[in-house]
Amino acid sequence: MEYILLVMVGFLAGTIGSLVGLGGGVIIVPSLLFLGAMHWLPHVTPQLAVGTSLVVIIFNGLSSTLSYMKEKMVDYKSGLLFFIGSGPGAIIGAWVNNTLSLQHFSLYFGLFLVSIAFFLSFNKKNAARSERKAFPITRTYVTNEGETVTYGYHPLVAIVISFVVGFFGGMFGIGGGSLMVPAMIILFLFPPHVAVATSMFMIFLSSMVSSLTHVFMGNVQWLFALALIPGVWFGAKTGAFINKRLRSKTVVIVLRIVLVLLGIRLIYQSFS
């Protein structure tokens, strides 16, 4: 019965993660902790939840990236540049994770998600009120609404931000998308659909690095991972399918709602 639940959790995580570029860890980690607390799964520590989540996220990232590749939504050059920062950050975050208790983990994770949701409330128009500066690297993209959008970034700034994203991703087991997608949309003016697709590509790369660190430390429950992976794979395909049919504003709204709900749930759990 518990493994059927994990398949369902995997499908939900894959769908939501791929839909808004989060990677799925924001669903998998709290779900594993909750199922462990309810004794539906053997004792689940934060470290075990994170390590298992990151292994599963590899397949979510790969499945999503393959789907978005067909629609030409992935900015590969930007994704590889972001990985230069997120890779080392993911390794350091994975090591820091071993110092967190369950109570502190839930509180910090919840506060992190809620703060990102509020951060995302400053939409692209508000972020671009001041005169736009010429970015050293620029791209153009035609949205689903037919609007041509120009976005860009400074390479050094992008690498630094990606390092922070990788750190949180490795520490919380979330793949980093919950921070990287808002950063791409607000700071670099990425169209939401491109931000989501590129985030999943970066998550695929950074999760491979951070998951290896957790495997080395023995933080992966392989039976859980094997149950989660099939659900995540097909869920990612479903999320990408839905994403391609939504307006940009709708993608952002869904992202904010998911972050707030999960954040509040974890904050409550830390005090219960």
TrEMBL record:
Q: How does it sit in the membrane?
A: Multi-pass membrane protein
The alphabetical list of record keywords is: Cell membrane, Membrane, Transmembrane, Transmembrane helix
Q: Which InterPro entries match?
A: TM_pro_TauE-like (IPR002781), TSUP/Inactive_protease-like (IPR051598)
Any single Gene Ontology cellular-component annotation: plasma membrane
Top-level taxon of the source organism: Bacteria
Q: Which residues form the signal peptide?
A: none
> What is its subcellular localisation?
Cell membrane; Membrane
Pfam families attached to this UniProt entry: TauE
Residues crossing the lipid bilayer are 5-28, 48-68, 80-96, 102-122, 156-174, 180-204, 216-236, 248-268
Q: Does Hydrolase appear among the keywords?
A: no
The family line of this record is: Belongs to the 4-toluene sulfonate uptake permease (TSUP) (TC 2.A.102) family.
Its name, as the record gives it, is Probable membrane transporter protein
Which species expresses this protein natively? Saccharococcus thermophilus
